[in-house]
Structure formats: structure tokens, C-alpha cells
Amino acid sequence: MEKAIVALKGVNKWYGNNHVVKDLDLEVAEGEFLTLLGPSGCGKTTTLRMIAGFEDASSGRIEVQGEGVDEKEPYQRDVNTVFQSYSLFPHLNVFDNIAYGPRIKKRPKEEIEQDVEEMLRLVQMSGYEKRKPDALSGGQKQRIAIARALINKPRVLLLDEPLGALDLKLRKQMQIELKRLQKKLGITFIYVTHDQEEAMSMSDRIAVMKDGIILQIDKPTEIYNRPNCRFVADFIGESNIMGGTVTKVEGDLLTVATPDGEVQTKGVGFAVGEEIDISVRTEYLECSSEPAGSFSLKATIRDFTNMGTVIKTSALTASGKELRISAFEQDENLHEGQDVYLFWKPEKSVPIHREQKEAKA
Amino acid sequence: MTASKGRAKGTNRLPLLAQAGPVSLWMILFVTIPMLFIIFISFMTRGTFGGVEYTPSLESYQTMMEVTYFHIIVKSLGVAAETTIACLIVGYPFAYYIARKPPATASRLITLLMIPFWTNSLMRLNAWMLIFQTNGPVNNFMLNTHMIDKPITFIFTDGLVLLGLITNYLPFAVLPMYSSIEKLQKPILEASADLGAKPSVTLLKVTLPLTFPGIFSAIILTFIPALGTYVITDMLGGGKVLYIGNIIKNQFGTIRNWPLGAAMSVLLLAVTALMIFLYSRFAKVEDMEVV
Amino acid sequence: MAEKEKLNRKQKRDRRRKIPWTIFAALVYASFYIPVLVMILFSFNDAKRNYSWMGFTTEWYPKLFSFGNHDLWESLVYSLVIAILATVISVIIGVLGGIGLKKFEFRGKRFINMMLFVPIVVPEVVMAVSMLIIFMIVGIKLGLGTIVIGHCTFCIPYAVIIIKGRITGDNETLQEASMDLGANRIQTFLKVTIPSIMPGIMSAAFLSFTLSIDDVMISNMLAGASQSTLPVLILSVNRTGITPDINALTTIMVIVMLFGMVVMNIMQRIHNKREARIMAESDARIQAARLAAEEY
Predict the structure, then answer these.
(1) Which DSSP string do the residues of C109-140 spell out, in sequence order?
(2) Given CB atoms, is A82 within the 8 Å cutoff of chain B?
(3) Under an 8 A CB cutoff, do C123 and B28 touch?
């Protein structure tokens, strides 16, 4: 990795007896868009707040630009935050909100005016200087909150679920805008969200967190295609997860016995006799009325759900497990209650060791 | 929307009358009419044997401007202002201290603040007198530690009255300020720190402006009653120190100059109205924390 | 647990900074509690009148209960009667009014809302004299009735505000649901509206009672030549010196108040415990039902 601009080393956070962040190590590269992704209560926001300085780490070390910041107050740190609730000052208008930081740093007046105008242009809010936050929509508030943080030219911008309160359409639009902004300015973004799609679409790297631990940290495609544990496979995208025992290892091709019959997958580092989980994305699971491929599982079609862009087919195996298939078009030959055969290309599935990190969590 | 509210149901006005009727009637009978009447009386002439003679005049307002009364008015305003300022200086940090505690602790601290006020207020005032008696604990302590060689007379002085006023009205200042500080969202303060403001700067630029409605409620809820009281001044001033409240009360008791008492009351009403007007300039009066 | 908290300098500094604030808060509390403690202490004063401490005695308590001081007991009873009447009237009018002013729009509503604000902010002495003049001119005899009216006039606004604060959009939906299910207005009022704002009613009653029982200015001016309430009696006795039996009586009143608080608290706790038990039981039942379903 290139130079790390933010580094967390063995960071712990306790609230009373509640261990919310556990021995966390994390390095964020300069100019990177890193997302902390996880369900609520996984410690992602706490981690962000420790970097910002709103919370003290119970132990461990946090460095920004190679310098320990544990003893620095939030106002002494070169990072800025975009808050989930925007936290615009309700008594100040848009201009004064954005000018808040530079005024505190006693920058010259003309310079501040220039910068505020530039920021407003950057977030496409020129002309709103005199408005009070109350008179802005959620999306507009968010843009101002971003401008207010960016005007301070932070090396790192921390974003705590900034789009959480916006409706779906606006959220998608803001995602694109945020990503473009980050690329244009070259600032490091550390972004917290529980929305996996948001994380996938914006990040350079994603750190999936659960119960205070980073389960997997990697590029979005890697996280999607090679989840390293059951939780990640389940949390990102939509997967079918089946348990079974490895019966044969031929190079990277594994044969696995499941309650519904033998299946195949590809991966290294597995031994005969190991109990594993297999994750198959719904779009890689195929279905036909005749046995096909190198193996197939017998199942009965339960129902179809039209999701707009895709059709989801739900099928029940003999052992009663529900498997889901998503496809762009519905196979006209299939109908509810029909017996079918399910299969997938072994390289399109992922074997996962049991008792991975999540057991620790 | 508006259809579900109000009169839309049309003919059946019984529920409205039954619910809003009694309170409206009560307020008109015992607030509106008496208030209007006292304003009316203040422009009448003093009766020869007390009471009132219904000849319009500005007599009582002229009396009010005489040196003796004018002096009392100025002094009362001064003492009420001192009380208010002291209540703000002590009350704001105190309210801040409570509001920044975890909610469970804060509500316990607020209860702790209320309990003493269930005791009779006069007996609490009397206790201050006992503490500051010529041979009371304060004087004894100072004599024994040779800070003074002669007991100080505290009782029936303006100083003791001021102490009584402050301790009596402090909770009424703390409560509205507490609730406005408590409403202040933590992320707003964090945003300020995040943008580089030291705690002192955050206090000045964010906390104080945003809690100003609470501060002004506190001003109203201490200044006006402190200006109008006659009980605290009676108890601790021993009737020697006269304030507006005492003057008003006396006009309807022993002295029987109703128009003058009414004019003094109108003065208090005017002060009250002015403060409420100022308040309404920057906050909604209906949202004022009074309970 | 123990090893987790190694404080760095910042955390230590943060803790040190809190100390002066804690001391400051303690001093403010002291200024509230010292008078109360002194008041209680002087109920044990071995002196005819409370000017200075003359030695310890408990004789004032038995003396109080042998009804040695008739005036004191009469004024207490009078105060209690007034407080109860004022509370009942204020709560009834306040609850009806709070609901009505929240629910209905009518001409003059703004005016009534403004009038409700007057007794809260206008100095009490002005309220007192304005009512006094009206009573005198109309020729109403001063006494119990006029004092109760006076107290209600400043208790009703508080009751209305508390009740209005308790009524949310939810309550209106509840009322509609009740009528939808076939209850008429009065049934709805008694079975849905009142129970749903019960905590507000309780706090309005509590506030009215405490305001009334402690009031001096209005009671004093509207009493006329009639019996004094306890606070008015204390005000008049103050000139000649408070007698320790008054301290004894007010001490007992504080203790009764505190005792009531503690009882309410305990009842609340028992209630919470029962709720928790019911929750736990139903959790177990839900779990069992779920397991049964899964097996199937």
C-alpha cells in the first residue's frame, strides 16, 4: 500500500462492559475512498467518531498522516466530518454555516467569501447564501454540510451515513456526485454506511464490519465475488448459502456432499472431510427442467416474483431448503410446482471455511 | 386536512362548548375583565376616604413620578435586574452541567432540584434569616475566625433580600435553560468542534445563540416575579425596605389609594408586555418553557 | 475490564476539568438544601421563638399533636381544603380546556390562548389586586370562595399547558379509532381520551396542589377578614418571630411529601417488574411457538 493517511492500530472501544470495537487495525491510503460497511451496532460509526475525535479509544493508537492524534481534541485534528443528521447550525444561514470553519481560523474576509462561493458552485448550490437551513430540502442540506466540511480543505473527509435520510432516487444521484467530487478533489474519504449497494457503487475499498471486527477488507468486486465468510456472502448482494462436507479435492475443484446431493465448487485451501459453506449468487444459480451441467440438485418451483429488472424464482429442495434464482427473463417453460434441476458453474460459487473470524465476533 | 379539524362537522357545537367553554369563560371573567378594570381604575381619581372616584385623571401617574415613588421604582427594577443576572450567571452553567449528564442522571438531578421547593417557601426564607442572624452561624463563624470583630447586621437589609430573591427564583431560571440546552443536539456541537472551534468558541457561537430562547424565558420567569414580589421583601426586609410589590399591596390594604396601586400595577403590566414582545421577536411565545 | 482503561493524558485532563464543575453544582444544591435543613433543625430548638439556637428538644412535636396551637391547625386544614378544591376545579377545567383548545378551531381561540399566558407571566400581586378590585366592586364577600377562584386562575393555565403537551396526533387517531369502533363521544372521552393523557392529568394535579398550598400573595389579598391559610399565617407571625412548632409542622409536611414520592416510586417499580415478567413469559411462549413451526 502507498502511504497511509489514516491508520488505526489495535484500537479498542468499551462502553462499560460493552466491547464495541475490537482490536481494530485499519490503514487508509491517501486519496482513497474507503467504506466501512456493516449492520447497525457493528462499530462502524464508533470507529469513525474515534478518528474524528468525538470518542476516545479505550486502547490502541490512531494516526493521521503518521502522527498520533489520541491526545488531540476534535478541533485540533485535520479531518472533517459530514454528519448523518447534517448538523447545520440552525441559527446561521448557508453562507455563515460554510464560513464557520475558516472564520474560526481567522482567514481574511475576502478569501472566505471567495472560497464559500467556490464551494457553493462545487456542490451546485450557488445563490442559496442567505437561506436558513430550515428552508432547505434534505438533499440541499446535505450539499451544504459537504461544502461546510470541504472548505477547510481537510486531508480526510469522514462521512457518517450522509445519505441515510434521503429518498432512494436522490440517494442514487448523490452517490454519483459524491464519487465525482472525491475523484476531482483527490481527498481521502472514509464513508460509513449500512447500505451495501451504496458501498459497492462508490468505494475503492470496502471494509465489512460486524460486532466490532473487520471481517473482510478489499475492492468491491473482490468482496462481491470472493466473500471470505458466510456473513459477507450473505450481507453483500444476494446469495444462496448451502452447508456440506468436502468429499473430493482435485486441484481447485472441490466436490461437496450436501443434504440434497453432491455439488461442485472451486477454491484452494480445503481438505477432504472439512465442513464448509458454499455461497452461490442468485444470478449464477441456473435452473432447467432436465438435468444439466456436471451436477444438479432436484427441487420444486415454489413461486416467481417480478422485481422489475429481474425475475426471482424461488425453489425448494428435497430437504426443504429454499434457493433463489434471479434472471432477467422468465423461462416460459417453467411453472409453479414444477420439478426442476438446479446447477451452477463451479467457478461461479465460493467455498467458505466455517468458524472464520465471525465466530470470534 | 383542515376539514378534520374544527368546525367542519358543522352543526354539533356541543363538544366544543363543553370543552373549550369553561376555560374561556373563566379566563374572561377572572383575567380579562380584572386586567381591563385595573387599567381603567388607574386613570381615575383617588377617593377622599380611600377607594376610587370615577373622574378621569392622570393623578396617580403623576404621583408615581414623584421622587419617593420614582426612587422605589428604579430601585425595584435594579434589584430585579440584579436577581436576574445572578440567576443567569449561576443558573446557566448549572443547567448546562445537568443537561450534559446522561438522561437518567439528569432527570434525577432535576428531581433533586425540585424537592426543596416542596417545603414552604416562607419557612425557607425564614431559615436564611436564622442563618444570618446577628448571633447566627455566619456571624459566629466570622467572629471566631477573626474575620470581623463585631457582628454584621444582615437581616432586614437589601443584601439579604437579594439573597432570598436569588435562591427563590434560581430554579425557575434553571428549568427553561435546562430544557433548551438539553434540546441542543450533540452533533451540532460536534460539528462545531469538527470545524475547528475550541469549546469556548462553540459556547459563544453555537450554544449561547441556540439556547437564547431558554435564556430569555429564564429572564422573564425571574425578572417579572422578582419585580412584583412583596412577600420576600416583607420576610427578609422586615417591611423596612419597600419595593413596587409592597407599594401596590399597601394601596389596597392600609393606605387605600386604589388608583395609585392600579397605576403601579399597570407599570408592571407594561414591563411584562414589553418583555413578552421582545421575546416574540425571535421565538414563538407559545413555545416558551414555563412548566 | 480492568486493563481496558489506560487513560492517556487527554482523558486524564478531561477528568480533571470536570472536578470544578462538580464542586460548583454541589454548591448550588447546597444553597437549595441548607435552608431546608436549617428549617428542620429549628423544629428541635428549645426556645419560645426561633431567633437563635437555644438547645435541643423534641417537645415541639408532641406539643403540636396535643393541638396546643389551634390557629396553626386551623390554617393548615383551611389550606388543604383550598388546595384540594383548587386542584379539582383546575384539573377538570384544565383537562377539558386543554383538549378543546387543541382539537377545535374557533373564533377567539388565539385570544384565549393569550389570556392563559397572562397569569403565568404577570406578577402575582397584579393578578391579586385586579381580582380583589372586581370582587369588591361586585360585592362578593372575600373568603374561601375568592381564594379558591384566585388559585384556580393561576393553576388552570398550567393544567391546560401540561394537557396540551400530552395530546399528540396519536391521541386524535385514537379517538377516531374509538368512534370507528362504535363508541360515542362520551364513551370515547372516558375510555380513551382520559386514560391516554392520565400521566398529564396526574402532573397537572400535582402542580396545582403544590402551587395552591404554597401560595401567599393571592391568598393574603383575597382572604379578607376570614381565616388565614398556613402560608399567610406564617407571613404574619414572621413579624413577631416564628415559633418552633411551625417548623415542626412544615417538617412533617415535607416528610409526608417525600413519603408519597417514595411510595409512588416503589409502586412504579413493582409495576415495571411485573411488566418485565410478562415480557419474559411471552418471549418464552413466542420462542416455543417458533420452534414448533420450524420443526414442521
Answers:
(1) HHHHHHHHHHHHHS-HHHHHHHHHHHHHHHTP
(2) no
(3) no
- Judged by a CB distance cut-off of 8 A, whether residue C1 touches chain A is yes
Q: Does A93 touch chain B (CB under 8 A)?
A: no
Residue with cell 470507529: A47
Cell 489520541 found at? A70
Residue ranges covered by each domain of chain A: 4-230, 239-360
In sequence order, which residues have a C-beta less than 8 Å from that of residue B158 and are 6 or more positions away?
A: B79, B237, B241
Report pLDDT for C42: 87
Neighbours of A125 (CB within 10 A): 20
Residue-range domain boundaries for chain B:
65-282
For chain C, give the mean pLDDT: 83
Asked whether the beta carbons of residue C51 and residue B262 sit closer than 8 angstroms, the reply is no
Q: In Å, how far is A262's CA from the nearest CA of chain B?
A: 54
Global confidence as pTM:
0.79
Q: What is the DSSP string of C70-116?
A: HHHHHHHHHHHHHHHHHHHHHHHHHHHHHHHHHH---TTHHHHHHHH
Q: Is the ipTM of this complex over 0.90?
A: no
What is the predicted pLDDT for the residue at C169? 64
Please, are residues C129 and B269 in contact by the beta-carbon 8 Å criterion? no
Kindly report the length of chain C. 296
Low-confidence ranges of chain B (pLDDT < 70): 1-12, 49-50, 286-287, 289-291
Contacts with A, C 84-143, CB within 8 Å: none
* A239-360: CATH, from 1.20.1250.20, 2.40.50.140, 3.40.930.10, 3.20.20.70: 2.40.50.140
Q: Which three cell numbers stand for residue A18?
A: 460493552
**pLDDT band at residue C292 using 50, 70 and 90 as cut-offs:** confident
Residue of A nearest to B283 (CA): A91
Chain A's closest residue to C7, CA to CA, is A58
| B111 to chain A, closest Cα gap in Å | 26
Q: How many residues does chain A have?
A: 361
Q: Which of C25, C127, C131 sits opposite B97 (nearest CB)?
A: C25
The predicted model gives A188-209 an average pLDDT of 91
Cβ burial, residue A303 (10 Å; 0-12/13-18/19+): exposed
CATH of domain A4-230: 3.40.50.300
Instruction: Choose the mutation target among A12, A55, A71 for the interface with C, i.e. most C CBs under 10 Å.
Output: A71
Angle in degrees, 0-180, between the axes of helices C9-41 and B103-114, rounded to the nearest 10:
20
Distance CA A71, CA C11 (A): 8
Q: What is the pLDDT confidence band of residue A116, given thresholds at 50, 70 and 90?
A: very high
Find chain C residues with C-beta within 8 A of B284's C-beta.
none
Q: In what order do the strands lie in the sheet with A67-68?
A: A18-29, A4-15, A59-64, A67-68
Output the CA–CA distances (angstroms, integers) from residue B189 to B179, B181, B201, B207, B208, in the order listed.
16, 11, 11, 8, 11
Tens-digit pLDDT profile for residues A233-280: 888 888 888 888 888 888 888 888 888 888 888 888 888 888 888 899
Tell whether B185 lies on the interface with A, counting CB pairs under 8 A: yes
Q: Which residue has the cell 435452473?
A: A287
CA distance B42 to B269: 12
Give how far A72 is from chain C: nearest CA, Å.
7
Q: For chains A and B, what is the number of CB pairs under 8 angstroms?
A: 62
What one-letter code names the amino acid at A342? L
Query: Minimal Cα distance from B186: which residue of A?
Result: A87
- In CATH, what class is B65-282? mainly alpha
Beta-carbon separation of A104 and B210 below 8 A? no
Mean of pLDDT values over A176-180: 89
The shortest CB-CB distance from A70 to any of C1, C5, C8 is to: C8
Q: Decide the pairing of beta strands A286-288 and A339-343.
A: antiparallel
How do strand A253-258 and strand A205-210 relate by DSSP bridges? unpaired
**pLDDT, tens digit, for every residue of C209-236?**
988 988 888 888 888 777 888 888 888 8
